């Protein structure tokens, strides 16, 4: 339980808010897998916290967030009275309604339990909504969305995931992902040859390259390799790469 009031000691995965001595302390647990001893642990940690810091609040509430009802333990004994009391609120993400109607933070959590077919569209909507939160928060949410989608779509690259979020090529070049990849390419290029870095990026997108294309890329001078490192973001097929190489002549 990690207290939301940072002056208090951590306790596993539950968090607590303690605003002032006359206020209410809130405990929150996010539980995505069934734990048949969850409530036993939760209430033990809550009551220990209450005993140690009773002077910092006047009341308390607890919330447990589940992806769905099936993730909750089936027996509440001997904690039935507490589980079913007004002290505890149980939230099931799949029952909260449409993501478009939820606060952004709650919708981000709900995204993790949506069917794969719905995730790209909802993630794109949330990415657009996050623009209203300021640049720093927007960037943090984009990174979080990319992480969630990468976990769900494990066959996709980060570039493909960012395109799911609605990024144009120009916007993609401004993301931390692109800047890190480009910086990585520059560094490895100095060590192993820039052509090797570009070939690796192309293989990640298109699989094994035909021998003639690989040979043509290896023969490019450093300035053209650097240009190709940026241009490859625009390629949808290997024919786009062939066309780009032909236009060099």
Written overview of the protein:
With 249 residues, the protein is of the alpha/beta class. It is 51% helix and 9% strand. The chain has twelve helices and four strands. It has helices at 38-52, 80-83, 104-111, 119-129, 135-152, 158-164, 169-173, 176-192, 194-206, 211-218, 222-231, 238-248, and strands at residues 15-17, 24-30, 59-66, 88-92. 18% of the residues are buried.
What is the topological layout?
Elements: E1 15-17, E2 24-30, H1 38-52, E3 59-66, H2 80-83, E4 88-92, H3 104-111, H4 119-129, H5 135-152, H6 158-164, H7 169-173, H8 176-192, H9 194-206, H10 211-218, H11 222-231, H12 238-248
Parallel strand pairs: 2-3, 3-4
Antiparallel strand pairs: 1-2
Helix pairs in contact: 3-4, 4-5, 8-9, 9-11
């Amino acid at each position: 339980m990690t207290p939301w009031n940072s002056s208090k000691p951590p306790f596993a995965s539950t968090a607590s808010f303690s605003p002032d001595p006359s206020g209410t302390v809130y405990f929150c647990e996010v539980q995505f897998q069934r734990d048949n001893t969850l409530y036993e642990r939760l209430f033990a940690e809550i009551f220990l916290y209450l005993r140690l810091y009773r002077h910092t609040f006047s009341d308390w509430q607890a919330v447990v967030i589940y992806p769905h009802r099936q993730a909750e333990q089936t027996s509440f004994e001997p904690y039935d009275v507490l589980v079913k009391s007004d002290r505890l609120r149980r939230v099931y993400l799949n029952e909260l309604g449409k993501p478009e109607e939820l606060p952004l933070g709650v919708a981000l959590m709900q995204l993790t339990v949506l069917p794969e077919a719905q995730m790209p569209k909802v993630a794109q909507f949330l990415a657009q909504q996050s623009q209203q939160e300021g640049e720093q928060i927007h960037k943090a949410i984009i990174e979080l969305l990319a992480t969630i989608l990468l976990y769900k779509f494990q066959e996709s690259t980060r570039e493909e995931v960012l395109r799911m979020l609605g990024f144009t090529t120009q916007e993609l070049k401004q993301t931390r992902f692109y800047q890190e990849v480009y910086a990585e390419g520059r560094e490895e290029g100095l060590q192993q040859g820039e052509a090797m870095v570009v070939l690796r990026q192309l293989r990640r997108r298109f699989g094994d390259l035909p021998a003639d294309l690989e040979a043509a890329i290896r023969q490019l001078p450093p300035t053209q390799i650097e240009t190709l490192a940026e241009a490859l973001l625009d390629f949808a097929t290997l024919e786009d790469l062939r066309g780009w190489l032909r236009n060099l002549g």
